[in-house]
Design a protein that fits this description.
The protein has one domain: Nuclear Transport Factor 2, Chain: A (Roll), CATH 3.10.450.50. It has a six-stranded mixed sheet with strand order 2-1-6-5-4-3. 25% of the residues lie in helices and 41% in strands. By secondary structure, it is of the alpha+beta class.
Length: 119
């Protein structure tokens, strides 16, 4: 499973994992103990809840594409945002994340809000 060597690689690997329906690859992008805001607004901080949310997401998405729209790196932390389109543009949005550099130099999500840009 490839690791994110740069913070923005997380967005590329997330898109790839969703399009391949690879839950294990998606889960590997998150630090243990990370926090994700579910699509329903719930705070998910355990592996089982994150896996269930991601499984529902990949089940509902035929294809997704997206790109990093903003990135600010400070030391071992990165504040990031991505723009995404799913199901042929039927669903669009802006995410917000905080990533952290791991001891091996790779990056993982620490905080993820896939609906950050949704009012």
């Amino acid at each position: 499973m490839p690791n994110a060597q740069r913070p923005e690689d997380l967005h590329l690997l997330f898109v790839d994992g969703v399009n391949r329906k690879d839950l294990d690859a998606l889960l590997a992008l998150y630090e243990p103990g990370s926090v994700t805001i579910g699509l329903d607004g719930a705070r998910l901080s355990d592996h089982a809840s994150l896996r269930a949310m991601l499984a529902g997401f990949v089940g509902a998405v035929d294809r997704i594409d997206g790109e990093t729209r903003k990135l600010i790196v400070h030391g071992d932390h990165a504040l990031m945002s991505a723009r995404f389109r799913a199901n042929g543009g039927e669903v669009t949005g802006v995410s917000g994340e905080v990533a952290r550099r791991q001891p091996d130099g790779s990056w993982r999500f620490l905080i993820d809000d896939p609906t950050f840009g949704v009012a």
